[in-house]
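LAB NOTEBOOK - FOLDING QUEUE
OPERATOR: T.R.
BATCH SIZE: 2
PURPOSE: Compare the predicted structure-token outputs for two unrelated chains run back to back under identical settings.
PRIORITY: normal
REVIEWER: second-year student, initials M.K.

ITEM 1
FIELD SEQUENCE / FIELD STRUCTURE:
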Amino acid sequence: MRVLVVEDERVLADAVAVGLRRESMAVDVVYDGDTALEHTAVNEYDVVVLDRDLPGIHGDEVARTLVAEAYNGRILMLTASDGVQDRVDGLTLGADDYLPKPFAFPELIARVHALGRRSAPPLPPVLERHGITLDPANHRVYREGREVGLTPKEFAVLQVLMRAQGTVVSAEGLLEKAWDENADPFTNVVRVTVMTLRKKLGSPQVIQTVPGAGYRL
């Protein structure tokens, strides 16, 4: 899952990003509305965590713009105001969910996961394919009943491949979904991560390399 965090309180924004990355999400962080719209214009995010009170372009206007452009990503709006009318206003703008500050971080994680499922074609909460079971909510992977310990990036790559349901995912597609905007597009990090993932999943190999196209599970 790829997430954009838009929050002008830099300490909070960076803390949210760290927590989401621990959940194997690719996270970009911006601190104002203008930069948020620049990012959404060139990147596809599954979820946009959007503070309502932003400098520059207000969070309300960011939400209106994304809705008007039929942006595919879901919007989770954050605000220090928790009155009923504030929640109604936020949802009326087109936000998919609304979370008042201060919030419990586990609740934020749960809401982002829920919105991420809504931004993609419907799939069961627990993914299963070729004897592999991936449980995103509990961040666990099993191969034929044996638990497999994965790094956050390995987990993210496996999740992207499993969600593709047998179709080929290019290296660029994996880089976009499992890494943030700072990833070097010319790096071999995707190949290395797939290699270590194969080793951890064991035999028989289930991740197939499709020459010139990418990878398929």
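ITEM 2
FIELD SEQUENCE / FIELD STRUCTURE:
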Amino acid sequence: MECLPVSEVPEGPEWTYELKLDGYRLEVVQTQKEMTLYSRHRNIMNKKFPYIATTLKGLANGTVIDGELVALSSDSRPDFNMLQNFRSAEEKITYYAFDILVHKNRDLTMLPLSARREILRTVIKPAEHVALSEVSNQTATEMLQFVRSHGLEGIIAKKSDSVYQPGQRTGAWSKHRINLGQEFVIGGYIPGTQGFDSLVIGFYQGKGLQYAARVRAGFVPATRRVVFEQIKGLKTAKCPFVNLPEKQAGRWGQGLTAEKMNDCVWLRPEAVAQFDFWNGQARIIFGTRSL
């Protein structure tokens, strides 16, 4: 189930609030034969995070859990960069379960969220690397104040009577970001010494991917290498942007003319980048359309 981005946090007795966690969305599936960690795109993540799979092996057969894999910094704030370097940050990584879809082969998706949470509390026992996503009893205003004062990313608001609708963005689950930023799809890159010199990004308008800009700022060499390792496997011969080539390069040279497109390596549009406008830095988020 997807969260609808909103400019204001919805309020009322029917709404509950959780902290917005900056990590990898993972679905945990326990069958009679095995425990599997699935990414948003159904890639199996057991080898990357074996300690999560080991901790959750005690789940009953026929159980499906939804949650977020998060790395916490020394001040207990989610740190996505640390999560990307998961091999050196094992002790900092925790899976936060926030919903249960199936339990002992019983489909729970049509139960209200409040009932699913009660079942989840009996199923997930907090342990090393595993925890429950806490539901706050604060008001929306109090949550906003808390998130701002602690420099956190945002708030997830969910209706307590909402059923689970896979793949849907109905608004029954909403997300409100505090920091100024925007997600863009990575559709290509221009090669450089650390893998890429700049990323070619865009956004969906209808079904078409629209070119927005080329981005170079915000990447240190180590970050460039990490990002490149995660996008290089998405190469494709076809340009994914429907509005290219552009006729002119523009005042600042960001336009992609037919001539400049010859320098580009195109990617399948399966990776999303989070760009923070206020400081010009970029973080790559895999798990929305890739992983």
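REVIEWER COMMENT (ITEM 2): The CA atoms of residues 184 and 241 lie 12 Å apart.
FOLLOW-UP: none requested
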